[in-house]
Amino acid sequence: MVAGLQGYRGNTLELLKKSGVSIGDLVEVKTTRMTVQGSLMPRYEHADEQHIVLKLKNGYNIGLQVNDILEIRWIAKSTSPAFKSPEAPKLDPQLPKVAILGTGGTIASRVDYRTGGVHPQFSAEELYLVVPEIAKYAQIHTELLFNVYSEHINADHWEKIAEKTAEMIRDSYDGIVIAHGTDTMGYSAAALSFALADTPIPIVLVGSQRSTDRPSSDAALNLIGAVTTAAKAPFSGVYVSMHHTIDDEAVALHIGARIRKNHTSRRDAFESIDTSPAAYVRNGELEVIHKDLPTKDKPQQSFKARYRFEKKVALVKFYPSFDPKIIDYLVDSGYRGIILEGTGLGHVSEQCYDSIAWATERGILVGMTSQCIWGRVRLTVYDTGRDLLRRGVIPLDDMFPETALVKMMWALGNTKTAEEAKTLMLQNIAGEFIARSPIERRPRD
Amino acid sequence: MSGLDPEKIGLKVGLEIHQQLNTQTKLFCSCEKFEENDFRYTIYRRLRPTQSELGEVDPAARFEFAKGLTIKYDVGQYSACLVEADEEPPHSLNPEAIRTVLIIALALNSQTVDELHVMRKIVIDGSNTTGFQRTLIAALGGELKVGSKQVGVQTICLEEDAARLIAEAGGVREYSMDRLTVPLVEIALAPVTGTPRDVHEVALTLGRLLRSTRLVSRGLGTIRQDINVSVQGGAVVEVKGVQKLDLLEKVVEYEAQRQIGIIHIKGDLEKRGLSPNDFNVEPIDVTNLFKETESTVLQRALKRGEHIRAILLKGTAGLLGLEPYPDVRLGRELADVARFFGLGGLMHSDELPGYGVTTSEIDMLRQHLQLAEQDGFLLLSGEDRRLHQACEAVMQRMRDAFRGVLAETRGATPDGKTRFIRPRPGAARMYPETDIPPIPLSADLIETLRKEVPKPWNEQIEEYMSKYALSRKLALQTYDTPYLELFEQLTAETNVPPSFIAATLTETLVNLSREGLDTSTLTSSLLKSLFTQLDQGQISKEAVPEILGLILRREAGSVEEAAAKLGLTAINDQELLAVVQQVLVENKGFVEEKGDTAFSLLMGRVMAKVRGKADGKKISDLLRSELKKMLQQH
Ligand SMILES: [Zn+2]
Predict the structure, then answer these.
(1) What is the pLDDT of residue B25?
(2) Is A261 annotated as catalytic?
(3) pLDDT at A46
(4) CA–CA min distance A115, chain B (Å)
(5) Residues B525, B527, B529, CA angle at the centre, nearest 5°?
(6) pLDDT at A327
(7) What is the mean pLDDT of residues A322-348?
(8) pLDDT at B594 (0 to 100)
(9) Shared fold status for A10-76 and A97-288
């Protein structure tokens, strides 16, 4: 990737070409003010066309204004730093069999010190290199399913992950870890919770809020938590393994259908909504908190996933001055389901009544959730709620909007009629409904 | 310098100054910069070497990780936010800090770069929460005028300061987050030849140039100098963390002696016909040999369940303890490495018997190891895994003794010596900070800033001398204190003579700190109230040192309280007149006898009564006129 003149455009590109230099070469640049030696660095794609970047001998980069450059003199060819790949670790056949599936994101990447580029890495060897400790807990097999940033992940990717995971469950793995970018990890966790409902083994999604090219990355601890759980948890189900607090101390295992990213950057951005994490991992030890987690005694060979997702489902947030035509548009565009993110206990303005009625009369599922995130919807308390019920809106209790959306996509994807899907919507499939509302605002253990 | 001629030994010293900038906020966020000791939160972290470092062999980074150290950060309410905690990406680079560093660069005649690129420098000792220090080059080249000489400038960098180390014990290293990401300018000067005194002069001059901008912080801990020391036939050794300028000379002198000494020892090793291969031996476990030892050091180690190992050092008897210069010994070099690996230290054969190890134990050991008379040995104790690593490193250091001076990073000790910290890291640990895009500097910006370059500091000193009628010495001293701005404010706002204010802020405070008092705790507002009350006649000049002393000893919380405690509240003119007249009456006979010459004795008696409650000049004026009146009456 270091070949050529990556990132340079316009005049600058012309000048570099004319000077016969390429990225990585040692060059001497004479400007109107100074003469400096250094290696030519690539230019970031979004940076301006006015500067060339040199890495000086002391490791620093500087930018030089192209209009002031008098001469660029080639001195020597670049020397690629030899990266020593580690030896493949020995697998201990006594240990549980754990697969780690890669989907992209920052769980394993290596920085190129010359260019600053971060390269995703995903062989088992390279994972061991980042976190050698995981070899203590399991025989690791790794596989890169695809390599996309998590904001580009869609329902097709969910299907792919679910299909592959189901195959590995039947292949008698003891647990499966799925490395995932954090932005949409909550959605994917919900999707897999439904698609792989009744999984006989633990499936653990893991991400990191700080990439592994930093010594302070949270990836290692999260991964150790995930592998520990996959290898030796006494329970099955779909979970998310992330930092419990901003300390590098404990990893929280959140129930896949109850997890939400609630901060843009903190290590403990992921929170269980209206419940505590199911378990914690501290110093490689698992501490189980929830008493009623699904057990591991189901047969693996006959496991079947229901992994289809209907894409024609929309999540619509209500707000003051909301235009009901947005709902009409969805109906006209062939949408099969709508999750409303209403106010408070689950309300929208009466101006939406007609559009909602029009949708439900056409067999479109309309579910109600609350933009408050925490707490339940209750449509029987006020007139507005009762009016909405009368128009066929399905109250979705304490399911928060993102999980409700994913569940409706799954329910419609795996049934033939809206009526069957509606039944599924109201069934507790993967712990997405919780009967008791805890007293604590954010239950921790 | 103890018989070493700097020119003959080819002494070269490069200075690297780190100076905090006096910006409103920190480098990458809106936090305030101050030392905050009211900790509200603690955060526990671990750092790991990044992948490419594991690919290379960086024993320092590996060891830091292998030690299993937990890092504890203490966090106050105002001095750190999610950015320092590495919980949020850095905000935009503080424009005030960029301006300041560019003005400094222009003052040093350095060439500013056209685009700033923030880099990450890997540091995994916990001093940065991220595991790297953010730093950028702002300018290259330039020169500093020191007297009649010119010292070259190599680079001028803008970087973030590290967290403040508080303690390390029981596998936990504790830092305060308040100092983390405070903006620093780092100026690397070209190596200079000359005496350690010259190096001191260079550092002092650069410090004054920085202060002349009025854009840098003042006071202890805001400026730090690292030095690169080399002698002919050696390598460049980086010595970090010389906090006080006074120590600089001593450190340079010691380090030069150490390097010459090491070269000398290398020669001796070769003269004995030894080679690095002679030191490829397996350490031998001798724990059992010392089961009954009376050495407290070893007893304690055994009680902790540690092991004792001996390393045979063929043909080195007499060389380990050889001390070509004070505190320069091969044994000390080896012990430093052991300490780096977490061991309490090591004993070598030239210092035994000693430490409670008896002659018979040594005889037993020599027999066990089958040592010849000219052979030496080392004894190390520690927890198994750590001991293993340490033994390997110590032997490597022994083999490295044949290379003479090693390029390494050392730390300055409070008594002016140096101690091994880690091998010198290479340029490979530097990579771009991708969270902050490059920042172009326009030619217009540079031209605007050029107008803000201050007058040279020596011209500023001349101005102080004439404007405030200060001696050169007092003007310079005031210029070097943390209180220059306060001095200007006080001279403008009060009628207290500038020379008295200057002397108080320099000499008086120096005297108090010689008494062991921490004068850095004096706040500007307290000093302001002191001079305001002096101006209003509520206290006298004579009382000032005592008042400050009381406050620094925490026996009084304010100037008023101190004055009241000392009974030093100034007396008014009427009361003073009464005292003077009383003394004259009491000594009437003496006055009649001696006439004018009675003055000095009378002055002493009045002073004794007034005890600092009135200004000395005022007293003498009053006494003189009253004495005159009395004599005229006769
Ligand atoms: Zn901050």
Answers:
(1) 96
(2) yes
(3) 79
(4) 7
(5) 70
(6) 98
(7) 98
(8) 85
(9) no
Q: CATH top-level class for A97-288?
A: alpha beta
User: How far, in Å, CA of B153 to CA of B140, rounded?
Assistant: 7
Question: pTM score > 0.80 for this model?
Answer: yes
Determine whether domain A10-76 maps to CATH 2.30.30.520. Answer: yes
How far is A328 from A335, CA to CA, in rounded Å? Answer: 10
Residue ranges matching CATH 1.10.10 in chain B:
573-633
Concerning whether A245 is annotated as a catalytic residue, the answer is no
| d(CA A50, nearest CA chain B) in Å | 9
B379 Cβ contact list (under 8 Å, min separation 6): B286, B298, B308, B309, B310, B346, B347, B348, B352, B357, B365
State which CATH number among 3.40.630.10, 3.30.830.10, 1.20.120.450, 3.30.1360.30 fits the domain covering B277-402.
3.30.1360.30
Other C-beta atoms lying within 10 Å of the C-beta of residue B333? 22
Asked: is B573-633 a CATH 2.40.30 domain? The reply is no
From the list B111, B141, B431, the residue facing A113 with the nearest CB is B431
ipTM of the complex as predicted = 0.93
Mean pLDDT of B416-444: 85
Of residues B234 and B170, more confidently modeled: B234
> Which residues of chain A make contact with B132, given a CB cutoff of 8 A?
214-215
Cβ contacts of residue B36 below 8 Å, gap of 6+?
Answer: B76, B77, B78, B79, B176, B178
pLDDT at position B264 = 94
For the CA atoms of B200, B203, B207, B208, the dihedral, rounded to the nearest 10 degrees, stands at: 60
Q: A68 vs B155: CB contact, 8 Å cut-off?
A: no
Partner-chain residue, chosen from B43, B115, B124, that has the shortest CB–CB distance to A63? B115
Q: Is B5 left (phi over 0), alpha (psi -120 to 50) or beta?
A: beta
Write down the pLDDT at residue B63. 63
Question: How do strand B307-313 and strand B111-112 relate by DSSP bridges?
Answer: unpaired
A61 vs B117: CB contact, 8 Å cut-off? yes
Question: pLDDT higher for B626 or B114?
Answer: B114
Q: Edge-to-edge strand order for the sheet containing B346-348?
A: B284-285, B307-313, B376-382, B346-348
Instruction: Say which of A44, A110, A246 has its CB closest to residue B87.
Output: A246
Question: Active-site residue A92, yes or no?
Answer: no
CB A279 within 8 A of CB A302: no
Q: Is the peptide bond before B353 cis (omega within 30 degrees of 0)?
A: yes
Q: Mark yes or no for CB contact B440/A63 under 8 Å.
A: yes
A36 shares contact with chain B (CB less than 8 Å): yes
Mean of pLDDT values over B171-192: 95
Q: Do B55 and A130 touch (CB under 8 A)?
A: no
**A51 part of contact set with chain B, CB < 8 Å:** yes
pLDDT value, residue B220 = 73
Which part of chain B is CATH 3.30.1360.30? 277-402
Which pLDDT value is given to residue B393? 87
| Closest of A399, A385, A386 to residue A430, by C-alpha | A399
Q: What span, in angstroms and rounded, lies between the C-alpha atoms of A80 and B429?
A: 15
pLDDT digits (tens, 9 = 90+) for A227-236: 999 999 999 9
Catalytic status, residue A106: yes
Residue-wise pLDDT tens digits, A194-229:
999 999 999 999 999 998 888 899 999 999 999 999
* The pLDDT of residue B492 is above 60: yes
Domain ranges of chain A: 10-76, 97-288, 313-426
State whether B52 and A112 contact (CB < 8 Å): yes
Mean pLDDT for the stretch of residues B574-602: 87
Tell me which fold the domain A313-426 belongs to: Rossmann fold (3.40.50)
| Residue in B41, B430, B441 to test binding to A, most A beta-carbons within 10 Å | B430
Catalytic pick among A182, A184, A199, A212: A182
Q: pLDDT at residue A3 above 60?
A: no
| Complete DSSP assignment for B299-322 | HHHHHTT-EEEEEEETT-TTTSS-
